[in-house]
Amino acid sequence: MDSSWFKLAPEAASTMAGKIDALYFYLSGVTLFFSLLIFGVLIFFVIKYRRRSPYEIPRPVAGSHRLETLWTVIPFLIAMSMFVWGAQVYFEQARSPRDTSEIYVVGKQWMWKTQHTTGQREINELHVPVGRKIRLIMTSEDAIHSFYIPAFRIKADVLPGRYTYEWFEATKPGTYHLFCAEYCGMNHSRMIGSVVVMGPSEFDNWLSGNAGQLAPAVAGQQLFQSLGCVSCHGANGEGGRGPELAGLFGKQVLLNNGQTIRADEAYFRESVLNPQAKIVSGYGPIMPTFQGQISEDQLLQLMAFIKSIHIVNPQPSTASPSSAAPTSSNTSTATPVASPVRRASPAQR
Amino acid sequence: MESFEVPQPSKVNYLNAQYGLKSWLLTRDHKRIALLYLGSVTFFFFIGGIYAMLIRLELLTPQSDLLSATTYNKTFTQHGIIMIFFFLIPSIPATLGNFLVPMMIGAKDLAFPRINLLSWYIYIIAGIITIYALIAGGVDTGWTFYAPYSTTFSNSYVVLTGLGIFINGFSSILTGLNFIVTIHTMRAPGMTWFRMPLFLWSTYATALIMILGTPVIAITVLLLAFERLARIGIFDPAIGGDPVLFQHLFWFYSHPAVYIMILPGMGVISELIANFSRKNIFGYSFVAFSSLAIAVFGFLVWGHHMFVSGQSVFASMIFSVLSFAVAIPSAVKVFNWTATLYKGSISYDTPMLYALGFIGLFTIGGMTGLFLATIAVDVHVTDTYFVVAHFHYIMVGGTLLAYLGGLHYWWPKISGRMYPEGWGRFSALVVFVGFNLTFLPQFVAGYLGMPRRYATYPPEFQVFNVLSTAGASILGFGLLIPLIYLIWSMRYGKIAEPNPWHLPGLEWRTASPPPTENFLLTPIVTWEAYEFAPPEEMEVVGTVHRGRHARSDVDAPIGENT
Amino acid sequence: MAESIAAEHEVHHPALQHHFENMEQQREASTLGMWVFLVTEIMFFGGMFFSYTLYRWLYPEAFASASNHLSLPLGAINTGVLIFSSFTMALAVYSAQTGKQRAQVICLTLTLLLGLTFLGIKAAEYKEKYDTNLIPGHLIPSRPFNPDAVHLLPGARKENVEIFFWIYFAMTGMHAVHMIIGVGVLSVILFFATRGRYGPEYHNPVEISGLYWHFVDIIWIFLFPLLYLLGRHLMGHGG
Prior knowledge:
The complex is a heterotrimer. Chain A contains seven helices and twelve strands. By secondary structure, chain A is an alpha+beta fold. Chain A has two domains: 10-42 and 68-213, Immunoglobulin-like; 216-318, Cytochrome c-like domain (Cytochrome Bc1 Complex, Chain D, domain 2). In chain A, strand 6 and strand 7 form a beta hairpin. Chain A is elongated. Chain A starts with 16 loop residues before the first helix and ends in a 41-residue tail after the last helix. In chain B, 64% of the residues lie in helices and 0% in strands. Chain B has helices at 21-25, 30-58, 69-105, 113-136, 149-153, 158-185, 198-230, 243-276, 284-297, 313-341, 350-373, 375-381, 385-415, 421-447, 462-492. Chain C has eight helices and no strands. Chain C has helices spanning 5-8, 23-58, 60-69, 72-97, 101-131, 158-194, 204-228, 232-235.
C-alpha cells in the first residue's frame, strides 16, 4: 500500500470492483480525449489566429446548424452510453443476489458494530470469507453515517430508524479500509476500521476461535420470550391471538385494509415499534408497541430469530419445540445451537 | 460624421459625483452598489480563503496535529458556508451584474434601485450575523447541515448560522427579481432580446434560478432551526419524521445554487471570448438558449447528491439520466466558445487568458461531473475527495477565473484606470498552475478512497495532500497579486479611454467611469450584439451631438458588414 | 459637458422615478416585479406543501384525527372573511382606477378591518392550542406537546399527531406573518389614499398591493381544506 503514489485505484477485492474500474477507465478515457481535444484546438486557434494588427477586424463567420446538431447529438449519445453501461452495473450492485449470507451492522458515533449470524461481534472490523455473497443489513443509532469499503467499491448511508442494505462478494484475501463516509461529528475521521478477507479454512478457524458469543437468533429467541411475544405469537411463532411468524420474511401479507405487502425488514421493524400502522387481516389491533423498550441490536437479534423459524408442519398447535431448523432464507445458520456452518443451504423464500 | 478623438477623462462621473460616506451608504446608483458589493465580497473571499489555508495546512500531515478534530470540522464547514453563500453566489451577479445590466441594455439604473441597496444591506446584516456565529464558537455540521446531526447532535451555533443564511437568501431573491424586471421592461429602443450581449442571457437565467430556488432553502433552514430549538421532530425518526426529507429539501435548492454560481461566469466568458477575438459568438442563439436550458434542467437533478442515501433505485435512475442531460447545454457552450476563436483576431490580454483557462478547467470539471452522474461510479467516489476536486474545478477553475477575467476586462469602465497588463498575465498564469496542482491530485486521492471531511487520514494519502497544499500556496499567492495591483491602479493606474478595448457593447459607448445616469442620452440600438467596427465608428453616446432630445446619433448602421 | 436630463423632459407625473423613461415603463416594471415576488412566495410555501403531502400520505389517520380537532366554524368564518376581504380589495382597486376617492378609502378600510378580524380569530385558535398543550415540541417550555386532547381515529398513532400540528403552525403561522405584512402595506396605501394620491393616471401601488393581498387569500384557500377538512366524514362514525 505504500507504493500507492502511482496507483490510480484501490485494490480490486470484490466481484464488482473490476466492473466499476472498467467503467471508470472508460469515463476517464473519454474525459481525457475531450479535454485534450479542447485544449489542443484552443491552443492551436489561439496561436494561429493571434491578433496581428491593433485594429484588425476579422470577417464574421456564419454559424452552422449542422455543427450545432453534431456537437449536441454526439455528446448526448456518449453521455447515454455512459448512462446505459453505468445503469447495468448499478442494477447488479443495487439488487442483492438471492443466495447471500447476512451480517448486521450498526453504526453509532463513532464506531461500527458488526455481528455475524453465528454470533461473532466485532467493533470496527469485519471478517469475511472469500467467495461468499454477503448482504449487510445496516442501521444507525444516532446520526447518519455511511459504510464505505473502497476496495469493494461499495458505500451506503446508514440511517436511524431504517434499514439500508448493500452486498458484496470478496475475491481477494487481505485487509482493507473501512471508512465512515457521511460526516457525523467530532470523530468522523476516526470512525474507521478494517475489513479482513480470509480464505475459507482461515475463516473457519477465526469463527471457532471467536465462538462463545450468542448467535443473534438465539439471543433473539430469548428476547422473544422475555418481551412476551410468545403470549400472542406462540412459543415458536406458530400464531394464536397474533399472526403466525414462521416463514414470515419474503411472504406476501394481507392487511385488514385490503392491501397486500411483502414482509421485509422494514415491515418487521415497524410492526414491533408501531404495530397499529399495519394490522394483518383477521387480527385485532391489540399488539402493544415496544418503542423505547428495545435497542437496535435487540431488534436485529429478534429479526434473526424470526428469520430462523421454519414451518415444520402446517398445524400451528402441533408445532414441535425444535421447530427452529437450520434452513431459512438468507442466513448461513440460525440454529439455537451456535454451530458454525460454512455455507448457507440453498435458500428458500 | 465627426472624426474620432480620444476624449478627456470625465470630470464628473459616478465616483466623484458626490463625496462622503452618506452618499455611498445611501446611494441608489447601481454602480456604487456594485462597488459596495465588490468590497464586501472580497472581504468574505478573504475569510473563506483563510479557512482554506487552515484546511490545507492541517492536511499536510495525516494526524490531526495543527487543529483539533472539532476545530477542523468547524473550519471546513465555515470555509464552505462563507465561500458559497457570501462569495460565490453574490460575486458575479452582485458586482459585475449590478454594474453592467443597466449599462448593457441602455438604461439609467435597475428597475428598483432602492431594493438593490436593500439587497446589499440584507447581505451585510446576514454576513455580520454569520461572522458573529463563527467568532462565538462556530458551526461544525458541514455546509450541508444534514439532519439528524445538525438538529440533534451538534453542539455548535447551527441556528445562528442558519439565521445568517436565511437572511442572505433574501438578498439573492431581491437581486434576481431586480434583474428579471429590468431586462424585461427597461431595454433601450432597438435592444431586442437577440441583440442582448450573452452576459445578459446568463444573468437572466441565473435570476430565474435565484427567485425559484432560494425560497426553498429559506424554508429548509427555518424548519431546521425549529427542529433544533423546539425539538419538534420534523426530521426525527422517533416520531415518524424522515432525515432524508431534509436532504431532499436542502438539495432542491443547493443543486440549482451551483448553477447560480456558474451561469454568470459562463456569461462573462461569452463576453471575453467574443470581444477578445473580435468575433460574434459562434451559435449565439444556441448559447443563449443553453443558459435557459441549464436553468430548467438544473431543477430536476437534485437527487444525484443522494444516490447512496437510501433512495429508491427507480428515483436514482431518473436523476442519473437527467444529470447527463443537464451536461449537454454546457458542452454546447464550450464548443461554441472554441469555434468562436476560429479565424478570429485573438489578443493575449489578461481577460482572455482567464477565459481560456476557464474553458479548459470547466471542461475537466464538467466531465468529472459525468463520473458522478454514473451511479455505479458515484457509489464509490461520493463523499470522497473526487467530489471535492470536481466542484473546485468548477467553482474555482470556473467561476473564480471568470470573475477575475471579468473584473480585469471591465476594470477600466469601473475605475477609469487600466490595470498593469504584465502583472495581470503573470498572476493569471500563477493562479492557473497553482489551481491545477491543488486539485488534480485530489481526483486520484478520491478514487483511491480518501473520504472528505476527514481531519486525520491514513498515511498512504499523504503524498496527494502535500502536493495539494503546495498548489494551494501557489494559488493563494497568485490571488493576492491582483488584489494588490487592482487597488494600486485605482490611484496610480494609467487613465483609461472610454473604450480602451475598442468594442461595440453599449457599456463601452459611454465614458469610463460612466456618469451617474450612465448615458447622456437614451441610446437607440440598431446593431447586433457583437458587431465589431473600426474605433471611429463606435462613438460615445451623447458626447458627439448634444442638445438633442430622445434620439441619439448612434442610429446610423455601424460599418458595412451588417 | 453633460446636459441635465431634467431640462429635456416635458412635465411629468410627480410619482415618476427618474431612472424610468415614463410612467408606463414604471407601471410595467412594478407590476412585473410584484408577480415575480409572488412566484418566490409560491416556492417558499411550496416546501411546506411538499412536507404536508409526504407526511399526510404516510400517516393519514393521524392527520385526520388532528384535523378533526381544529375548529371548523372558526376556520370557515375565517375563510369567508378573507374571501370577502379580497372582494373589498378588488373594489378598492376599481375605485382607484376610476378616481372614486371616497370609495377607495372605504374599501381599503374594510379590507384592513377584515384582515385584522382574520388575525384575531387566528389568535383565538392559537390560544386554544396553547391551553390544550398542542403547541409542538418544547416551543413553550412549560407546556410540552401533549396529544391527549386529540381524539384518535382507529389506526392513528399518538406520536404522529405532533407532525400534523407542526405543519399546521408552520403553514398558518407563515400565512399569518404574510397577513400582518399585508396589513402593514395596506395601512400605508390607505394613508396615501386619504390624501388623494391615487387616481386614474396613477394607481399602480393599489393594484400591486391588491395582487399581494389576493395571493395571501389564495394560500389560505388551499390551507383551509388541507388542514381543516381532512377527516370530517369520519367524525360521525365512531371517529
